[in-house]
Protein: Glucose-1-phosphate adenylyltransferase
Amino acid sequence: MRDTLGVLLAGGAGERLFPLTRDRAKPAVPFAGQYRIIDSTLSNCINSDLRRVYILTQYKALSLNRHIREGWGPVVANELGEFIEILSPMQRVSKNWYTGTADAVYQNIYSIGSEEPKYVIILSGDHIYKMNYGLMLKQHQDSGADVTLATLPISPDEVSAFGVVEIARNGDVTGFVEKPKETNIRSPFTPDMVDVSMGIYIFNTDVLIPELLKDAENPESKHDFGHDILPKLLGRFKVQAFNFVDENKTKALYWRDVGTLEAYYEANMDVAGVSPTFNLYDQSWPMRTRPYQYPPAKFVFGEPGRTGMAINSIVCSGSIVSGAVVRNSVLSHDVRVNSYADVDSSIVFSHVNIGRHCRIRHAILDRDVHIPDGTVIGYDPTEDKKNYFVSASGITVVTRDYSVYENPVSSDFLQQRENW
Structure:
């Protein structure tokens, strides 16, 4: 890994996670109470001993930048040449913002070149999974590949959201199609499945840089690795597939693109469950994050009908469950749930206050929201839509606008809700 540079793409707008991404970048969205989505990939880097990482940010990156600076900068030893460093768009080689994944890397080509890596590993900051990139690098070296991409078997009816990879029995990539509506391609290793790209690539640097330069000069290109770079490598370079090895160590491979509200909600509900598929408590593959200085979580009152308790839930530091019941939920830092409230199957971000006698279920409460006494959320979608954002599957998202306008909400907020 000493000859390898990590380039982590973290500039996506995350439109499908709206309104959670209205004020923050997708990789900065909280996950499992105390983490951010990007912490999964960064933890993989550290656990894989990859300690030179550039993070390319762009979209509403203030909270993400703070999280990286305060939580991840101290993890590495700068005096040994290690770094986890943010690269915001500098327009050094272009007057545009990043126009695609390949363009984002191209616009930082001087920073990459200055480190003189032999290999560059391209990563995404918006997936939840555990992976040892060192195993992938070893296969890349042993096979003599110019490019290696990580692949994952999925059901054929899911291919429209992925880059489909055609693989020979020896592991060589012989075809690549970005997000087809359907495909007849099947995995040579699992015949009823389709191998798809995980968005993780290892390039020999002497292959990557010329290809980025060539792509940047092509006005017809979308400047995207999946659409443009990878298909054009086939037949000209040795491109290998690396079958995903899951460090999560469960029967089913765990890799989640939490890019929709539904996928994000289900991933959080999983970690709060009795036997979660994604194990946060595995000491052999720890998931790290920015440390927060809050007091311990607290549960108070034990009277009949007024008992502070949390069942099958994650409750982070600084939170107080005061004579309320929390079930199957995730509470971030500094959350207050007041007496006689009932919170079920919900995700509560930090600095939220839930008033007395509130009933909340199947909801996501954004940070800094105050829920007035007696509020009911998640029981009547028709009523919820008058004040909040409700997804197609019925997840109610309460944002900070509501804590400002409450009831009746302003016409400005109603117009925003219609635009959602």
